[in-house]
Amino acid sequence: MTRRLALITGASAGIGAEFARQYAARGWDVALTARRADRLEKLALELEDRFEISATVIAQDLAVEGAVDSILAELQETGRHADALINNAGYGLPGTFFNTSWEEQATFLRVMLNAPCELVHKMLPDMVEHGYGRIINVASLVGYTPGSAGHTLYAPVKSALIKLSESVHAEAKRAGYNIHVTALCPGLTWTEFHDVNGTRARTNQAPEWMWMQAGPVVEAGLDAVDRGMPVVVPGAQNKGLATLAKLLPDPIARAVMAEQSRRFRDLKE
Ligand SMILES: NC(=O)c1ccc[n+]([C@@H]2O[C@H](COP(=O)([O-])OP(=O)(O)OC[C@H]3O[C@@H](n4cnc5c(N)ncnc54)[C@H](OP(=O)(O)O)[C@@H]3O)[C@@H](O)[C@H]2O)c1
Hints:
Elements: E1 5-9, H1 14-25, E2 29-34, H2 37-51, E3 55-59, H3 67-77, E4 84-87, H4 102-130, E5 133-138, H5 154-175, E6 179-184, H6 193-196, H7 200-203, H8 214-227, E7 231-232, H9 236-247, H10 250-264
Helix pairs in contact: 1-2, 1-8, 4-5
């Protein structure tokens, strides 16, 4: 029997690498994509060795025009189709709308919003044809919180991924397709994310109870998509914060967010 295959973006580190490990441990084949080919090759070898699955490496920068088509063409060349898509690649852009260039913001939108939407849209027909599809869009807890000073488009993009997941999930359900779409909304997670965007020292001031390891974050995502949940917030602490964000009156929520971003966000001032 042919094994199922998961295409995972941002698989060279953090949450994406953990998705690859957990899919491989379940006996799935994986297609790993990110920019750093050396990291992907190393992970692919590790997974093939440990779990006796097949791992394909597709090195690609999602900021580049035509990136999604290139990834899908490389996958097609292997003669395989993806049963699952994990839209996980991402980064933070410190600073404000005032002190960052449009090029930086436009690149951010291409990687964080255009590419995930395009991957979902272009992979759905194949999933419909095969009668099976599982899609996880890695959003964030900040998709629920008000906008704040700094990292301007991060929260809006993550909100959009939550809504996208809910909508496509509802459309698939209505049409009777066996396709589940889930937005995974982690809070602070120990990965390279805050090292890459240079906010490690600042963010590490957040209390220990707010942090999760990538393992349980990914477990929550896989469990939710299996069960057909359109959104999941991993961890009791993050569930509590998401509920609070929904219940607080808007002006109070904005004031809390302003205080938190003053402490933890880098405005590049
Ligand atoms: N860590 C947190 O606290 C946290 C909280 C909530 C949500 N998230 C979300 O979780 C997701 C994964 O982040 P992480 O925490 O695992 O961070 P990470 O350890 O820094 O990993 C980010 C991954 O994204 C890839 N990536 C970044 N830019 C890319 C580009 N232009 N093209 C292709 N791949 C790119 C990186 O690979 P290359 O550099 O090799 O390209 C890397 O594999 C992100 O969407 C993030 O927004 C993280």
